[in-house]
Design brief:
This protein has a domain of 62 residues. The protein has three helices and no strands. It is rod-shaped. It starts with a helix and ends with a helix. The chain has 102 residues and is mostly helical.
Length: 102
């Protein structure tokens, strides 16, 4: 824009004219918005499905690890009990001593 001094010298001030903005068809705008919202809904549905599958897999893994841990603990306890029983078995000589004599 020109200053007031330039206008006083007889020059015409420049006027900024807004550029012509193309008219947007409301139907096309709604179609574009509809397509965008549809895309977001489909992506959200896919994300929820992936989350469900991931959660199912995590639950199954947790169960299998829990069962494996339980089996490992049971095996350890069984081994310890087996060793204890082997140590405590009476020897044939001990059995003869324990028999009551009549």
């Amino acid at each position: 824009m020109m200053s007031d001094e330039n206008a006083a010298n007889g020059e015409t001030p420049e006027v900024e004219t807004p550029e012509a903005t193309p008219e947007i068809d409301p139907i096309e705008a709604l179609r574009a918005e509809n397509a965008e919202l549809k895309d977001r809904v489909l992506r959200t549905i896919a994300e929820m499905e992936n989350l469900r599958k991931r959660t199912e897999r995590d639950v199954a893994d947790t169960r299998s690890y829990a069962i494996a841990g339980f089996a490992r603990d049971m095996l350890s306890a069984t081994d310890a009990l087996s060793r204890a029983l082997r140590c405590c078995r009476p020897k044939p000589a001990d059995r003869a001593m324990r028999r009551p004599r009549a």
